[in-house]
Amino acid sequence: MYHLKIHHTDTLMNTLHFSSASAASVHIFSSLESVALDTLPYLQHGTVGFSGGTTYKTLFSLWAQKKPNCSDASFFPVDERLVPFDDPASNWGAAYRLFLNPVGKSSNKTHAALSAKQYNNLLHSHFSTVPPVFDVIFLGMGSDGHTAGIFPGTPHVVNPAIRVLETTSPVAPIQRISLSMTVLAAAKNLIVVIAGAEKTAAVAGILNNNNVLPIVQVLSQRSNSIVYIERQVYSAGQRNI
Length: 241
Known about the structure:
Layout: E1 11-19, E2 22-29, H1 32-39, E3 45-50, H2 54-65, E4 72-77, E5 79-81, H3 91-100, H4 116-126, E6 136-139, E7 164-168, E8 175-179, H5 181-186, E9 189-194, H6 200-207, H7 214-220, E10 224-230, H8 231-239
Parallel strand pairs: 2-10, 3-4, 3-6, 6-9, 9-10
Antiparallel strand pairs: 1-2, 5-8, 7-8
Helix pairs in contact: 1-2, 2-3, 6-8
């Protein structure tokens, strides 16, 4: 168990250690507005990977409202649901409508992930390294503890040789595409944002270093990461340890 001292305002918390060589700086937030402000500089340069989900739909709109200069940045999906681009469930469709188009990066629409093979080829054309090393990757976490398109207990989680995965979700849309654990862990900067009361049990797992959770496996492979956790979820997670 990890004991992080809670303050009464949004602030940097004590470091969460997963091993002697792996740590994450934990921020507790009350509003995603503060997360959007904190993370805005990461959107303005280099290669950026976006996760999908409700939390990021909110962040996309908040970021776009702040009109960042993204002319020197290129954006890519971290994971995608195999649905039509205009389907409300499409992660990249949401990123395009809520962020890419409003900030003048509509050309990045072509970075869509349509299959593991297609997306692997696309990454190969944009990155000179194997695995591709993103300047920053934004991750979230589902109530079941999945991150990106990687779900607890799936064989893909422990396969370091695969760069892009085709995965299966226990809930619809079932067919997914995801960057692999190897690519997620290789990013120069990794930022995790967790919000929503339904994630209390999964947050307790993070605080208790439950290695069954894919997000814990990713963080454990990195020397440093940044994790934002909503205040009420963090507090409830502590009580559930």
